[in-house]
Amino acid sequence: MTEALNADPAELAKFSDLAHHWWDPESEFKPLHQINPLRLDWIHALADLNQKRVLDVGCGGGILADSMARKGADVTGIDLASKSLRVAQLHALETGTPNIQYREVSVEALAQEQPASFDVLTCMEMLEHVPDPSSVVRACAELVKPDGWVFFSTLHRSAKAFMLAIVGAEYVLNMLPRGTHEYAKMIRPSELAASCREAGLDLVGTKGMEYNPITKRYALTTDTSVNYMLAARKFS
């Protein structure tokens, strides 16, 4: 029997419909372009991407994957949204980004195919869009080598996150398309940390991401009550 994909068809369709906007820095993906340097610097400072084998899970149009490859990493980006992957592949060809490839495969399937194969794994803004986030966390833990790094980012399921990330970002400021996020699918840091521990990953650190609507700038902070990143490591 074929194992069901851990993916929501409605979510895949949502991002496929926006695929042609991935590399437009003034489009719906403007926030991702703005926060990408902050994320990249934090990941690189902890894991040193140069000459590392890196997997970007839920890579979308390749914004983070592309920037990690430019840091000297050998990057594989995976996603189940076909149109987004085609955009990522085309961008890599047009810009000549070295050491990068894209595949349409689930993280669970790749874990069976290539266990303990990557030095660094990133999974950004994906967990809140899948039916079973813990399955993704387990697969990520299986894919990373001993002593390897795993980085997640997602949204805290809190009243503050509901007001800022959904009401504020989607309905007031129109920074994101309405319906991008569902409150019930958001994940508390304690829940993600527990999933990591159950999968054999040790929590190393967290960072919050805040947006200042006056300066229109993002910054990394210690406040994880809305957007946050979590760094974990698979110690041998």
Automatic annotation (TrEMBL):
Gene3D superfamilies: Vaccinia Virus protein VP39. InterPro entries: SAM-dependent_MTases_sf, UbiG_MeTrfase. S-adenosyl-L-methionine binds at R39, G58, D79, M124. Belongs to the methyltransferase superfamily. UbiG/COQ3 family. This is Ubiquinone biosynthesis O-methyltransferase. Pfam families: Methyltransf_23. Pathway: Cofactor biosynthesis; ubiquinone biosynthesis. Keywords: Methyltransferase, S-adenosyl-L-methionine, Transferase, Ubiquinone, Ubiquinone biosynthesis. The gene is ubiG. GO terms for molecular function: 2-polyprenyl-6-hydroxyphenol methylase activity; 3-demethylubiquinol 3-O-methyltransferase activity; polyprenyldihydroxybenzoate methyltransferase activity. Its EC number is 2.1.1.222, 2.1.1.64. One of its GO terms (biological process) is methylation. SUPFAM superfamilies: S-adenosyl-L-methionine-dependent methyltransferases. O-methyltransferase that catalyzes the 2 O-methylation steps in the ubiquinone biosynthetic pathway. It catalyses: a 3-demethylubiquinol + S-adenosyl-L-methionine = a ubiquinol + S-adenosyl-L-homocysteine + H(+); a 3-(all-trans-polyprenyl)benzene-1,2-diol + S-adenosyl-L-methionine = a 2-methoxy-6-(all-trans-polyprenyl)phenol + S-adenosyl-L-homocysteine + H(+). CDD domains: AdoMet_MTases. It comes from Acidovorax temperans.
